[in-house]
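User: Can you predict the 3D structure for this chain?
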Amino acid sequence: MKILVTGGAGYIASHTNLELLNAGYEVVAIDNLSNSCKESIRRVEKITGKEISFYENDIRDKEALINIFNKENIDGVIHFAGLKAVGESCRIPLEYYNNNISGTINLLEVMDRFDVKNLVFSSSATVYGDPKTVPITEDFPLSVTNPYGRTKLMIEDILRDLYSADPEWNIAILRYFNPIGAHESGEIGEDPNGIPNNLLPYIAKVASGILDKINIFGGDYDTHDGTGVRDFIHVVDLSLGHIKAIEKLGDKPGLVTYNLGTGQGHSVMDIINNYEKACNKKLPYVITDRRPGDIAVSFADPSKAYNELGWKAKRGIEEMCRDSYNWQSKNPNGYR
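Assistant: Here is the predicted structure, written as structure tokens:
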């Protein structure tokens, strides 16, 4: 079975490529390399001993997509491609709408043209907005607090409308909580361009001496230590959730939605404390203003994914920080 992975050189995608290959799937990857590096493809090939068909293209380029579908016998798609920084989306919303929405519509049109109707979509817990209670189940009201989240929710709505119009589609919407960590080999991990937007790569660069201090955005939330609480999930556990989702599509379930998280909340300070244990040093930090669009607490109820997919996160916060530091130690400049 051949799977097209969009955004295929990215952080979560590279780990998913590895697990797909290990599970016996063939992988075709497309990425415009705007916030990723082709080296991740080479390293996955090195770890697995298997090849990936890689195309350096943008999914907004319809002719490029048509060319890929003509060349490759695609059976299903895992759709990761998209801009993903909350703060940045508040500054340049039009770019987020153009990239994330237009790219997805392009992809769906080409999939429909080639009668490829199996899709796993990379959504986000941001579609729950600022939940009134936790843990969060899949039937919670949907709302958003930033343009990035709005693009995810809009794409979900597009997929629901598409399935309603054509029930031959089989679509799994996966709502991620907060992926961190890296493959235990230290060969692949998170490597954003420039100053990281996400917590763990920022902490990692402080631990390596590349950045001076950690900026904690908000120390006055209604949480046990004042810092934001999130459901941090190991990227390998998250990747294995995609394998289970692809398997589920084989049962022709129609449109299904799952939370992928651990079901536990950890604060920013919890992560810093565990990272200090992993790197065996104190990490300087400063508490600054809250970021626009951020919320106080978010963690999942992942029981539906366990009951219907047989999937459960197995790796704890210590392993997440250990594997992240292992990646950073071996690759202080990322893939570059």
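The first strand starts at residue 2 and ends at 6. The radius of gyration is 19 Å.
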